[in-house]
Design a protein that fits this description.
404 residues; alpha/beta; Alkaline Phosphatase, subunit A; 2 domains; eight-stranded mixed β-sheet; five-stranded antiparallel β-sheet; 15 helices
Length: 404
Protein backbone atom coordinates (compact mmCIF):
# COMPACT_ATOMS: atom_id res chain seq x y z
CA UNK A 1 0.00 0.00 0.00
CA UNK A 2 1.25 3.46 -0.95
CA UNK A 3 0.24 6.58 0.95
CA UNK A 4 -0.05 10.18 -0.27
CA UNK A 5 -1.02 13.51 1.24
CA UNK A 6 -1.96 16.19 -1.28
CA UNK A 7 -1.77 19.44 0.66
CA UNK A 8 -3.31 22.52 -0.99
CA UNK A 9 -2.00 25.19 1.36
CA UNK A 10 -4.74 27.64 2.33
CA UNK A 11 -7.20 26.01 -0.08
CA UNK A 12 -10.27 26.41 2.16
CA UNK A 13 -12.08 29.76 2.12
CA UNK A 14 -15.13 31.73 3.19
CA UNK A 15 -18.14 32.18 0.94
CA UNK A 16 -17.47 34.91 -1.62
CA UNK A 17 -20.37 37.16 -2.72
CA UNK A 18 -19.06 37.60 -6.26
CA UNK A 19 -19.03 33.80 -6.64
CA UNK A 20 -22.72 33.59 -5.77
CA UNK A 21 -21.93 33.10 -2.09
CA UNK A 22 -19.78 30.07 -2.81
CA UNK A 23 -16.20 29.27 -1.81
CA UNK A 24 -13.33 28.75 -4.23
CA UNK A 25 -13.57 24.98 -3.65
CA UNK A 26 -17.29 25.04 -4.46
CA UNK A 27 -16.72 27.11 -7.59
CA UNK A 28 -13.68 25.31 -9.00
CA UNK A 29 -14.20 22.62 -11.63
CA UNK A 30 -12.87 19.49 -9.92
CA UNK A 31 -14.05 16.45 -11.90
CA UNK A 32 -11.44 14.12 -10.41
CA UNK A 33 -12.33 14.96 -6.81
CA UNK A 34 -16.02 14.88 -7.74
CA UNK A 35 -15.52 11.30 -8.90
CA UNK A 36 -13.67 10.30 -5.73
CA UNK A 37 -15.95 12.08 -3.23
CA UNK A 38 -18.85 9.57 -3.07
CA UNK A 39 -16.35 6.81 -2.26
CA UNK A 40 -14.24 8.82 0.18
CA UNK A 41 -14.47 9.84 3.81
CA UNK A 42 -15.03 13.58 3.85
CA UNK A 43 -15.06 15.53 7.09
CA UNK A 44 -13.58 18.39 9.08
CA UNK A 45 -10.33 18.47 11.04
CA UNK A 46 -8.94 20.96 13.56
CA UNK A 47 -5.32 21.42 12.51
CA UNK A 48 -4.54 24.44 14.70
CA UNK A 49 -4.61 23.70 18.45
CA UNK A 50 -6.36 26.19 20.72
CA UNK A 51 -4.07 29.03 21.73
CA UNK A 52 -1.77 28.66 18.73
CA UNK A 53 -1.65 30.92 15.67
CA UNK A 54 -2.90 29.47 12.36
CA UNK A 55 0.44 29.55 10.59
CA UNK A 56 1.47 27.18 7.82
CA UNK A 57 4.23 26.02 10.16
CA UNK A 58 1.86 24.87 12.92
CA UNK A 59 -0.74 23.49 10.50
CA UNK A 60 1.63 21.57 8.20
CA UNK A 61 3.42 20.10 11.19
CA UNK A 62 0.01 18.98 12.43
CA UNK A 63 -1.03 17.36 9.13
CA UNK A 64 2.32 15.54 8.97
CA UNK A 65 1.50 13.98 12.32
CA UNK A 66 3.58 16.05 14.75
CA UNK A 67 1.58 17.61 17.57
CA UNK A 68 2.55 21.30 17.48
CA UNK A 69 2.03 21.55 21.23
CA UNK A 70 4.89 19.07 21.67
CA UNK A 71 7.22 20.01 18.82
CA UNK A 72 6.63 23.58 17.66
CA UNK A 73 9.36 26.08 18.58
CA UNK A 74 8.77 28.72 15.90
CA UNK A 75 8.58 29.08 12.13
CA UNK A 76 11.97 30.47 11.19
CA UNK A 77 14.11 27.60 12.54
CA UNK A 78 12.28 25.21 10.21
CA UNK A 79 13.22 27.45 7.30
CA UNK A 80 16.77 27.89 8.56
CA UNK A 81 17.30 24.13 8.65
CA UNK A 82 16.05 23.77 5.07
CA UNK A 83 18.45 26.54 3.98
CA UNK A 84 21.40 24.54 5.34
CA UNK A 85 22.11 26.87 8.26
CA UNK A 86 23.79 25.05 11.14
CA UNK A 87 21.98 26.14 14.28
CA UNK A 88 23.28 25.95 17.83
CA UNK A 89 20.84 25.25 20.64
CA UNK A 90 21.31 28.83 21.87
CA UNK A 91 20.60 30.45 18.49
CA UNK A 92 17.35 32.29 17.86
CA UNK A 93 16.16 32.58 14.28
CA UNK A 94 13.76 35.04 12.69
CA UNK A 95 12.08 35.06 9.29
CA UNK A 96 13.31 38.05 7.31
CA UNK A 97 10.86 39.02 4.57
CA UNK A 98 11.68 41.46 1.82
CA UNK A 99 8.59 43.68 1.70
CA UNK A 100 7.26 46.79 0.01
CA UNK A 101 6.37 49.66 2.34
CA UNK A 102 4.86 52.98 1.38
CA UNK A 103 7.31 55.79 0.61
CA UNK A 104 6.42 59.13 2.10
CA UNK A 105 5.74 58.71 5.84
CA UNK A 106 8.23 58.22 8.69
CA UNK A 107 9.04 54.50 8.99
CA UNK A 108 6.73 53.84 11.94
CA UNK A 109 3.74 55.22 10.00
CA UNK A 110 4.26 53.40 6.73
CA UNK A 111 1.77 50.97 5.16
CA UNK A 112 2.44 47.32 4.27
CA UNK A 113 1.84 47.45 0.52
CA UNK A 114 3.20 44.01 -0.40
CA UNK A 115 4.49 41.32 1.98
CA UNK A 116 6.38 39.61 -0.88
CA UNK A 117 7.85 42.64 -2.70
CA UNK A 118 6.12 41.61 -5.89
CA UNK A 119 7.25 37.98 -5.58
CA UNK A 120 10.81 39.20 -6.02
CA UNK A 121 13.12 36.77 -7.80
CA UNK A 122 15.57 34.70 -5.79
CA UNK A 123 18.50 36.22 -7.71
CA UNK A 124 17.45 39.81 -6.98
CA UNK A 125 16.72 38.97 -3.37
CA UNK A 126 20.12 37.32 -2.86
CA UNK A 127 21.83 40.53 -3.94
CA UNK A 128 19.74 42.60 -1.54
CA UNK A 129 20.20 40.27 1.45
CA UNK A 130 23.95 40.14 0.80
CA UNK A 131 23.95 43.94 0.87
CA UNK A 132 22.01 43.90 4.15
CA UNK A 133 24.46 41.43 5.68
CA UNK A 134 27.43 43.58 4.62
CA UNK A 135 25.92 46.66 6.23
CA UNK A 136 23.93 45.32 9.21
CA UNK A 137 25.31 41.86 9.97
CA UNK A 138 27.90 41.20 12.66
CA UNK A 139 29.17 38.39 14.89
CA UNK A 140 25.85 38.24 16.77
CA UNK A 141 23.33 38.89 13.98
CA UNK A 142 23.71 37.24 10.57
CA UNK A 143 21.39 37.48 7.56
CA UNK A 144 21.00 34.52 5.20
CA UNK A 145 19.40 34.56 1.75
CA UNK A 146 16.63 32.08 0.99
CA UNK A 147 14.09 31.88 -1.83
CA UNK A 148 12.18 34.82 -3.34
CA UNK A 149 11.09 37.09 -0.48
CA UNK A 150 11.72 34.53 2.29
CA UNK A 151 15.02 34.92 4.20
CA UNK A 152 16.47 34.40 7.65
CA UNK A 153 18.19 36.26 10.50
CA UNK A 154 20.09 34.26 13.11
CA UNK A 155 20.86 35.79 16.51
CA UNK A 156 23.66 34.01 18.40
CA UNK A 157 22.80 33.40 22.06
CA UNK A 158 19.48 35.10 21.36
CA UNK A 159 16.35 35.54 23.42
CA UNK A 160 12.75 34.73 22.53
CA UNK A 161 9.48 36.15 23.79
CA UNK A 162 9.00 39.01 21.34
CA UNK A 163 5.74 40.08 19.75
CA UNK A 164 6.37 39.97 16.00
CA UNK A 165 3.65 40.10 13.35
CA UNK A 166 3.65 38.19 10.04
CA UNK A 167 3.61 40.76 7.23
CA UNK A 168 0.95 38.82 5.30
CA UNK A 169 -1.39 39.46 8.24
CA UNK A 170 -1.23 43.22 7.75
CA UNK A 171 -1.53 43.74 4.00
CA UNK A 172 -2.66 47.31 3.21
CA UNK A 173 -2.49 48.27 6.89
CA UNK A 174 -0.42 50.84 8.76
CA UNK A 175 2.50 49.05 10.39
CA UNK A 176 2.45 51.27 13.51
CA UNK A 177 0.68 48.81 15.88
CA UNK A 178 2.60 45.83 14.50
CA UNK A 179 6.21 46.90 15.04
CA UNK A 180 8.43 44.62 17.17
CA UNK A 181 7.84 44.49 20.91
CA UNK A 182 10.02 42.79 23.53
CA UNK A 183 13.54 42.76 24.90
CA UNK A 184 15.31 43.12 21.53
CA UNK A 185 12.56 45.17 19.92
CA UNK A 186 14.77 48.24 19.54
CA UNK A 187 17.45 46.20 17.79
CA UNK A 188 14.98 44.55 15.41
CA UNK A 189 13.17 47.79 14.64
CA UNK A 190 16.55 49.43 14.12
CA UNK A 191 17.47 46.80 11.53
CA UNK A 192 14.15 47.30 9.75
CA UNK A 193 14.49 51.11 9.66
CA UNK A 194 18.11 50.98 8.52
CA UNK A 195 17.21 48.45 5.85
CA UNK A 196 14.76 50.93 4.34
CA UNK A 197 17.49 53.55 4.01
CA UNK A 198 19.84 50.98 2.49
CA UNK A 199 17.38 49.43 0.07
CA UNK A 200 15.16 52.24 -1.17
CA UNK A 201 17.69 53.44 -3.79
CA UNK A 202 19.52 50.15 -4.36
CA UNK A 203 20.12 49.45 -8.09
CA UNK A 204 17.98 46.29 -7.89
CA UNK A 205 15.03 48.34 -6.68
CA UNK A 206 15.65 51.18 -9.10
CA UNK A 207 15.37 48.68 -11.94
CA UNK A 208 12.28 47.05 -10.43
CA UNK A 209 10.56 50.43 -10.19
CA UNK A 210 11.54 51.25 -13.78
CA UNK A 211 10.05 47.92 -14.84
CA UNK A 212 6.79 48.68 -13.01
CA UNK A 213 7.46 46.20 -10.19
CA UNK A 214 7.18 46.65 -6.44
CA UNK A 215 10.55 47.46 -4.83
CA UNK A 216 11.88 45.38 -1.96
CA UNK A 217 12.48 48.49 0.14
CA UNK A 218 12.56 47.00 3.65
CA UNK A 219 13.14 43.84 5.61
CA UNK A 220 10.44 42.66 8.02
CA UNK A 221 11.37 40.43 10.96
CA UNK A 222 8.96 37.88 12.46
CA UNK A 223 8.47 34.19 13.29
CA UNK A 224 11.21 33.81 15.91
CA UNK A 225 12.13 30.39 17.24
CA UNK A 226 14.76 27.89 18.29
CA UNK A 227 15.81 24.62 16.66
CA UNK A 228 13.19 21.89 17.28
CA UNK A 229 13.70 18.15 17.48
CA UNK A 230 11.21 16.02 15.54
CA UNK A 231 10.77 12.27 15.67
CA UNK A 232 12.20 10.25 12.78
CA UNK A 233 9.30 9.60 10.37
CA UNK A 234 10.47 6.14 9.34
CA UNK A 235 10.94 4.96 12.92
CA UNK A 236 7.60 6.47 13.90
CA UNK A 237 5.55 4.86 11.12
CA UNK A 238 7.76 2.00 9.87
CA UNK A 239 7.76 3.41 6.34
CA UNK A 240 9.99 5.51 4.13
CA UNK A 241 8.60 8.98 3.50
CA UNK A 242 9.38 11.93 1.26
CA UNK A 243 8.38 15.58 0.90
CA UNK A 244 7.81 17.64 -2.25
CA UNK A 245 7.54 21.39 -1.69
CA UNK A 246 8.85 24.76 -2.82
CA UNK A 247 8.50 26.20 0.69
CA UNK A 248 11.43 26.24 3.10
CA UNK A 249 9.41 25.70 6.26
CA UNK A 250 7.77 22.49 4.96
CA UNK A 251 11.13 21.32 3.64
CA UNK A 252 12.56 22.00 7.09
CA UNK A 253 9.91 19.86 8.79
CA UNK A 254 10.75 17.03 6.40
CA UNK A 255 14.47 17.36 6.99
CA UNK A 256 14.07 17.37 10.77
CA UNK A 257 11.96 14.20 10.47
CA UNK A 258 14.71 12.61 8.30
CA UNK A 259 12.38 12.33 5.31
CA UNK A 260 13.63 12.40 1.71
CA UNK A 261 13.44 15.89 0.19
CA UNK A 262 12.38 15.44 -3.43
CA UNK A 263 13.48 18.32 -5.64
CA UNK A 264 11.36 19.21 -8.68
CA UNK A 265 12.38 21.76 -11.30
CA UNK A 266 10.04 24.69 -11.85
CA UNK A 267 8.53 24.77 -8.35
CA UNK A 268 7.77 28.39 -7.48
CA UNK A 269 5.48 28.27 -4.46
CA UNK A 270 2.79 30.04 -6.49
CA UNK A 271 0.09 29.46 -9.14
CA UNK A 272 2.73 29.13 -11.87
CA UNK A 273 4.45 26.20 -10.16
CA UNK A 274 5.19 22.88 -11.88
CA UNK A 275 2.07 20.98 -10.80
CA UNK A 276 2.66 18.12 -13.23
CA UNK A 277 6.31 17.78 -12.24
CA UNK A 278 5.35 17.42 -8.58
CA UNK A 279 2.79 14.71 -9.34
CA UNK A 280 5.14 12.76 -11.62
CA UNK A 281 7.98 12.98 -9.11
CA UNK A 282 5.69 11.65 -6.37
CA UNK A 283 4.60 8.68 -8.49
CA UNK A 284 8.17 7.87 -9.50
CA UNK A 285 9.29 7.88 -5.86
CA UNK A 286 6.37 5.72 -4.78
CA UNK A 287 7.08 3.20 -7.53
CA UNK A 288 10.76 3.13 -6.65
CA UNK A 289 10.92 2.54 -2.91
CA UNK A 290 9.09 5.22 -0.95
CA UNK A 291 5.94 4.26 0.94
CA UNK A 292 4.64 7.79 1.61
CA UNK A 293 4.88 11.17 -0.11
CA UNK A 294 3.71 14.55 1.16
CA UNK A 295 3.00 16.84 -1.81
CA UNK A 296 2.75 20.43 -0.62
CA UNK A 297 1.44 23.16 -2.93
CA UNK A 298 1.62 26.75 -1.75
CA UNK A 299 -0.32 28.23 -4.68
CA UNK A 300 -3.82 28.57 -3.13
CA UNK A 301 -2.33 30.18 -0.02
CA UNK A 302 -0.37 32.79 -1.97
CA UNK A 303 -3.45 33.62 -4.04
CA UNK A 304 -5.51 33.93 -0.85
CA UNK A 305 -2.97 36.34 0.63
CA UNK A 306 -3.30 38.50 -2.47
CA UNK A 307 -7.09 38.28 -2.50
CA UNK A 308 -6.80 36.75 -5.98
CA UNK A 309 -9.98 34.70 -6.31
CA UNK A 310 -9.51 33.80 -9.97
CA UNK A 311 -6.02 32.40 -9.53
CA UNK A 312 -6.97 30.59 -6.34
CA UNK A 313 -9.70 28.78 -8.27
CA UNK A 314 -7.19 28.06 -11.05
CA UNK A 315 -4.73 26.60 -8.50
CA UNK A 316 -7.40 24.31 -7.06
CA UNK A 317 -8.31 23.15 -10.57
CA UNK A 318 -4.64 22.37 -11.27
CA UNK A 319 -4.39 20.37 -8.06
CA UNK A 320 -7.45 18.40 -9.15
CA UNK A 321 -6.94 18.00 -12.89
CA UNK A 322 -3.15 17.74 -12.94
CA UNK A 323 -1.86 16.51 -9.58
CA UNK A 324 -4.60 14.20 -8.31
CA UNK A 325 -5.45 12.93 -11.80
CA UNK A 326 -1.80 12.04 -12.49
CA UNK A 327 -1.47 10.30 -9.14
CA UNK A 328 -4.63 8.23 -9.47
CA UNK A 329 -4.14 7.37 -13.15
CA UNK A 330 -0.51 6.34 -12.91
CA UNK A 331 -0.77 4.39 -9.65
CA UNK A 332 -3.86 2.58 -10.92
CA UNK A 333 -2.10 1.75 -14.21
CA UNK A 334 0.85 0.40 -12.24
CA UNK A 335 -1.47 -1.86 -10.25
CA UNK A 336 -0.61 -0.18 -6.94
CA UNK A 337 -2.94 -0.08 -3.97
CA UNK A 338 -2.95 3.40 -2.52
CA UNK A 339 -4.62 5.64 0.03
CA UNK A 340 -4.70 9.42 -0.38
CA UNK A 341 -5.53 12.33 1.91
CA UNK A 342 -6.44 15.64 0.28
CA UNK A 343 -6.70 18.74 2.45
CA UNK A 344 -5.47 22.26 3.15
CA UNK A 345 -3.45 23.01 6.25
CA UNK A 346 -5.66 25.99 7.20
CA UNK A 347 -8.04 28.34 5.37
CA UNK A 348 -6.64 31.48 3.72
CA UNK A 349 -9.79 33.43 2.86
CA UNK A 350 -9.45 35.89 -0.01
CA UNK A 351 -11.61 38.36 1.90
CA UNK A 352 -9.16 38.79 4.81
CA UNK A 353 -5.93 37.87 2.95
CA UNK A 354 -4.54 35.91 5.88
CA UNK A 355 -4.81 32.57 7.67
CA UNK A 356 -7.73 31.61 9.88
CA UNK A 357 -8.08 28.79 12.39
CA UNK A 358 -11.39 27.18 11.36
CA UNK A 359 -11.39 23.41 10.88
CA UNK A 360 -10.33 22.35 7.40
CA UNK A 361 -12.21 19.99 5.05
CA UNK A 362 -10.44 16.75 4.22
CA UNK A 363 -10.98 13.89 1.78
CA UNK A 364 -9.67 10.42 2.54
CA UNK A 365 -9.74 7.99 -0.38
CA UNK A 366 -8.47 4.46 -0.97
CA UNK A 367 -8.64 2.43 -4.16
CA UNK A 368 -9.00 -0.75 -2.08
CA UNK A 369 -12.25 0.02 -0.23
CA UNK A 370 -15.25 2.33 -0.22
CA UNK A 371 -14.95 4.91 2.56
CA UNK A 372 -18.00 6.95 1.50
CA UNK A 373 -19.89 8.95 4.14
CA UNK A 374 -22.59 10.38 1.89
CA UNK A 375 -20.76 13.49 0.63
CA UNK A 376 -21.40 14.46 -2.98
CA UNK A 377 -18.37 16.75 -3.49
CA UNK A 378 -15.23 17.78 -1.67
CA UNK A 379 -16.21 21.20 -0.30
CA UNK A 380 -16.39 22.96 3.07
CA UNK A 381 -20.18 22.59 3.26
CA UNK A 382 -20.20 18.91 2.31
CA UNK A 383 -17.49 18.19 4.88
CA UNK A 384 -19.58 19.83 7.59
CA UNK A 385 -22.72 17.93 6.59
CA UNK A 386 -21.10 14.52 7.14
CA UNK A 387 -20.67 15.20 10.85
CA UNK A 388 -17.21 13.60 10.75
CA UNK A 389 -14.81 15.67 12.85
CA UNK A 390 -11.19 15.02 13.80
CA UNK A 391 -10.47 17.14 16.87
CA UNK A 392 -6.66 16.86 16.79
CA UNK A 393 -4.94 17.56 13.49
CA UNK A 394 -1.93 15.37 14.17
CA UNK A 395 -4.29 12.38 14.38
CA UNK A 396 -5.49 12.81 10.79
CA UNK A 397 -2.46 11.03 9.33
CA UNK A 398 -3.25 8.05 11.57
CA UNK A 399 -6.55 7.59 9.72
CA UNK A 400 -4.65 7.57 6.43
CA UNK A 401 -1.93 5.18 7.51
CA UNK A 402 -4.43 2.81 9.14
CA UNK A 403 -5.84 1.92 5.72
CA UNK A 404 -4.43 -1.41 4.54
Amino acid sequence: MKYIIVLGDGMADWKIPELGNKTCLQTAKTPVLDNLAPHAEIGLCKTVPDGMKPGSDVANMSVLGFNPKDFYTGRSPLEAVSMGINLNSTDVTLRCNLVTLSDDEPYENKTMLDYSAGEISTEEAAELISFIQENLGNEVFKFYAGISYRHCLVAANGRTGHTLTPPHDISDKKITPYLPKGVNADVYLGFMKKSYELLKNHPVNSKRIADGKNPANSIWLWGEGTKPALANFEKLHAMKGGVITAVDLVKGVGMLADMKIIEVQGCTGNYDTNFLGKAEAAVNELLNGLDFVYIHMEAPDECGHHGDVERKIYSIEQIDGTVIKTLTDRLTSAGEDFAMLVCPDHPTPCACKTHTAEPIPYLLYANTKDLGKGAKRYTEDEAEKTGVFVTEGHRLIEKLLAIK
